[in-house]
Amino acid sequence: MSEEKDILVVAHSSEWKPYSYIPGNGQPKGLLIDFWQAYAKYNHESIQFMLLDWADSLSYMKEGGNRVHAGLLKSPEREAYLDYVAPIFNTNGSLYVQNQAGQVSKDPLAADKVVGVVAGSYESWFLAEHYPNVKQRRFRRNETLFSAALDGEISALVADSQTANFYFLTQGKPLAFVADQVLYTRPIYAAVPKGNQALLNEIRAGIDNIPSQELLRIKQKWINTERVEAYPTWLIPSVALTVLLGAVTYIFILKRMVYKRTVALRQANSRLREFANTDPLTQLLNRRGLDAYFSRQKPKLSRQQEMGLILIDLDHFKQVNDTYGHMQGDKVLVHLASYLKRLVKKGAAARLGGEEFCVLCPTPNLDALIEIANHIRCDVADSVFEFDGAEIRVTVSIGAIIASDVTDDMDALELDALIHAADVLMYRAKHRGRNQVMLASSQSVKTPISAM
């Protein structure tokens, strides 16, 4: 493929689902594909994708030129020939082990254990660095790695969590392997050939031009993957065989086996549903989990027991990430989430994305909701987050709304309408100077708790 000066070549893997891959129609798809298409759109730049086997994508970057790696994790080996531009998205690397009747193998990372990885991947480097006695079986691409796992050739593998979920779910075997432990959480960086400072600056400025709402849309499109439940294919034939044989003793033994495995399956499905409804960073509900909570509470609403919604957004949070790094910024988000868990006794707290949080709770009137919202605002403003000797202070802007401010028909009330109304109020709080609570009456609350 030619590499003209005005065309930016974006290199990545052809089989790193859901980040980048080539489906049957030959058109690249994935989270990073959408990200770089957004980059091209908002910077009016022409790009072309070079999707290869993972190791080949790294070799391609070593050749230099007007090219960028779509996204990868940092490692000392890669820093020898790459300059990293900016973190794009976070990813988790997890150890997956074969699920055997609800039991998992012991000590999968013990010496002489065999673990599958993709050759040239960060996972391969991580195992060699932290678990040098583990034997690695290296595969050229993700497709062959997961095929070997599902065919029983390997009983353990290390892979990106979203990639593993994608492969197991799309193959219809979500319970074949389970995540034994999360080994690391790291940001994915864009990178350019070593020493190309002009391209480094260009990519950095171009990424800043992509609206945060577009980044959130892309992430939610690919990361919020639906979970499915699967039951063993042998269950019905086994029961039929038991009835056919008619042996009371054998039936008793089989029933005990079915019971134990059903309990294990229910527990596994329960963990999957919880994972699907939970934000992985803060362990609060995500948007899907908030929808489920709202659906359960809606039949209980009345004029005497309304539903209140508090939308919370951290002020100038990008400055925290830029100054202290995304890892420290994530710690601030986790601390805020922990505070909301302690505060909300009746109701639910959720992270909608980025630095935006939501509290959904039953309330008798607006005054009770205002008290909760202002407690949050004041407590956050008075908090000091200390990380590695640095003191970080943040404030929040809040939009607070009750159901009757949106509609008089409680049966027709929708969560989207509540969130939209609170979002409008929250942005009014931003425009009026931040660190305040904005109500539907256009009243701004900035009073300290002690003075209320």
Automatic annotation (TrEMBL):
SUPFAM superfamilies registered for this protein in UniProt: Nucleotide cyclase, Periplasmic binding protein-like II
Source taxon at top rank: Bacteria
GGDEF domain segment(s): 305-442
Catalytic activity: 2 GTP = 3',3'-c-di-GMP + 2 diphosphate
Transmembrane segments: 234-253
InterPro entries linked: Diguanylate_Cyclase, GGDEF_dom, Nucleotide_cyclase, Rev_trsase/Diguanyl_cyclase, Solute-binding_3/MltF_N
PROSITE patterns in alphabetical order: GGDEF
Entry protein name: diguanylate cyclase
Keywords linked to the UniProt accession: Membrane, Transmembrane, Transmembrane helix
One Pfam family, short name: GGDEF
Species of provenance: Salinivibrio costicola subsp. alcaliphilus
EC number: 2.7.7.65
